[in-house]
UniProtKB/TrEMBL annotation:
One of its GO terms (cellular component) is nucleus. It comes from the Eukaryota. Its main location: nucleus. PANTHER family: OS08G0421900 PROTEIN (PTHR46364). Gene3D superfamilies: 2.30.30.490, Zinc/RING finger domain, C3HC4 (zinc finger). It comes from Cinchona calisaya. This is Chromatin remodeling protein EBS-like. Residues 138-189 form the PHD-type domain. Pfam families: BAH, PHD.
Length: 219
């Protein structure tokens, strides 16, 4: 008797157990880690399918946290940073705990408040080699580090570079209150500029007239 291959059927969506949250292909999900002390794994659901015994399976593409990468977590990695890996898996849909949102880096930096389910991704990660795509990223400040969105930076109004307050000898509170900032390089250029002050005529705005009038009244 010929064996028939177990038939699988693709599903449009999956409702997370005990919730009203619907997961569809393309959504990002949090999946229970086997170790209870670990934060949930983050993945992108690529496909949801039921096997011939009606077990719901989800084909996922894993996001790696910086600490799970070969190089480990580095100073410029944000708390909500994830790398989209080339590591695919099939998991039981039961392990899905909830949904999350993995933003582009640009969109993440524009969020007014970051909710627990908000993450961002600016690198793809090759799990086998530990390589990142892109392999280069813009650096800022005197310390020449990529931007960590968790850290406050101030922008120089001269060169438009960004600086960590601590790297330029400034306190966080002081940095928050700045209206305008010039880095030391730009400030020294500014000093060397010849000063050409276009002084306003003293009679402008009619300010001089009342002053003179009061003087006249005094004596
Ligand atoms: Zn710095
Ligand atoms: Zn500057």
């Amino acid at each position: 008797m010929a064996k028939t291959r177990p038939s699988k059927s693709d599903l449009d969506s999956y409702i997370i157990k005990g919730t009203n949250n619907i997961v569809r292909a393309g959504d990002c999900v949090l999946m229970r880690a086997p170790e209870t002390d670990k934060p949930p794994y983050v993945a992108r659901a690529e496909k949801i399918e039921a096997d011939n015994r009606s077990n719901l399976k989800v084909r996922v593409r894993w996001y790696y946290r910086p600490e799970e990468s070969h190089g480990g977590r580095r100073q410029f990695h944000g708390a909500k940073e994830l790398f989209l890996s080339d590591h695919f898996d099939v998991q039981s849909a039961d392990t899905i705990e909830g949904k999350c949102v993995v933003h582009t880096f640009k969109n993440y930096t524009k969020l007014e408040n970051v909710k627990p389910e908000d993450y961002y991704c600016r690198f793809e990660y090759k799990a086998a080699t530990g390589a990142f795509v892109p392999d280069r990223v813009a650096v800022y400040c005197k310390c020449e580090m990529p931007y960590n969105p968790d850290e406050l930076m101030v922008q120089c109004d001269g060169c438009k570079d960004w600086f960590h307050p601590a790297c330029v000898g400034m306190g966080i509170e002081q940095a928050k209150q700045l209206d305008l900032y010039l880095c030391s390089d730009c400030a020294s250029i500014d000093e060397k500029k010849p000063e050409i002050k276009l002084t306003e005529s003293p009679v402008m705005n009619g300010k001089l007239e009342p002053k003179m009038a009061t003087k006249r009244q005094k004596k």
